[in-house]
Each structure stands twice: as structure tokens, then as C-alpha cells.
Amino acid sequence: MLTWVVYDISEDKIRNRVAKFCKGYGLYRVQKSAFLGDLNRNQIDELVLMCKEITDDEKDSVYIFPMCEEDFKKVRMIGIPFNKELVSDEVKSLFV
Question: Counting beta carbons within 10 angstroms of the beta carbon of residue 51, is it exposed (0 to 12), middle (13 to 18) or buried (19 or more)?
Fold first, then answer.
């Protein structure tokens, strides 16, 4: 399932760990604090648990948005889009 992960984390160390988790799941960085890729439900649940363990509920926020292809096709980008060359074939095909 196409999944967006967007976060606002105050500490560099924790922010870097969340980014590393995202990359470890094969997500592609589309902006400094935004990742996109294909995750199954178990991977989403694991990512949620890992982020809960290391983030501070009082200061940080992590949003994980699973998105069906139909809704993803409705996404509109304004300004400089992310590098579609870096995103998996499944995601690239939705922008063609």
C-alpha cells in the first residue's frame, strides 16, 4: 500500500533515526521530513511501534498515511516535485 510518512521532530538524533527507519523500509525521501513508498500493513504497524518508542509525545509528531492508488492519483503537486526517478515503479506509474 502506498504510504506517506511525514514528521516534525525536534532532536536531530531522533529525527535521523526515524529517517533511517523509513529508508530501511524502502521508503523514498521526497522532502526533508517526508517519505513515500510501498508498505504492507505489518510494516506500517512496525514503523508505528518503532516511532512511538523513540519520539517524545510532548514535542514530536509523526504522521503515517496509507493511501490507495485511486486517492494517490488525486494528489496535486505545486512547485518543485520530488524526483520521480528515485521512487519505485509502482509509484512512478501513477504519475505518468
Answer: buried
Q: Residue type for 47, please? A: L
Write out the chain's pLDDT in tens, 96 residues.
Answer: 899 999 999 999 999 999 999 999 999 998 899 999 999 999 999 999 999 999 999 999 999 999 888 888 787 878 877 665 555 555 544 444
Pick among 3.30.1340.30, 3.40.228.10, 3.30.70.240, 3.30.470.20: CATH of 2-93: 3.30.70.240
CB-based contacts of 41: which residues, under 8 Å, 6+ apart? 1
For 30, counting Cβ atoms within 10 Å of its Cβ (0-12 exposed, 13-18 middle, 19+ buried), the class is buried
CB neighbours of 48 closer than 8 A, spacing ≥ 6?
Answer: 64
CA–CA distance, 25 with 41 (Å, rounded to integer):
12
